[in-house]
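The protein record quoted in full:
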Amino acid sequence: MITNRNFDARMLSNLSERAPFTVDTLLAATANTPIMNPDAEYLANTTKIDISGLPKGSLQSSITDGVLTVTFSNPLEKQGPVPDGWATWSSPPFSEDPNPDVLISGSTLTMTLSRPVQIFGFELEPSPFGVFEYTAEFYRNGTLVESNTREVDGSAGARLFARTGEEIDEVVVTGPFEFAIAQVRYALPSPEPLNTLIIFAILILLLILAVILLS
């Protein structure tokens, strides 16, 4: 039987030989997960940037709630609420609301975020009636983190493009035709001190469990 003294020495040796267990390594190991529909959990855990107060027909280079600013590669035209200025949208559970305010873009759009976020999402619908393929690529510091491709119907078929996992600070949207986006939502990363405490607590629990099993 391994004694506690021998166990402690071996554990310390093993821990010293391994790469440090930091918040960054934990986030890197976090699975990137697409969010397909704006369910109750998604809505509860994110903040929406409200665009309802923007003038109808105005061109917007960015939107903000005072915490996060989303800057667009080209100005987007504000319309809505649907069907005012944009004919259709989808209804729950595929969208948050069947009559949102929207921002109209050309066939490609880059959204640059003023700070990294852990969750980011928006609803999208093509301008032509018909089913078309759109892709949202999520980046951090110029490196692709995740890509989400969906077929979206321009006739009352808006769909959510959202994800959670590693932090991102830029989104590139591409498709064959003009499209509208709505319900831009985000969640900031958890504070690092809290993550560090959680990691430390998990390590302590694992050490205690190992001592119990090997004694």
Notes: Residues 33-189 form a domain with the Jelly Rolls fold (CATH 2.60.120). Residues 1-29 have pLDDT under 50 and may be disordered.
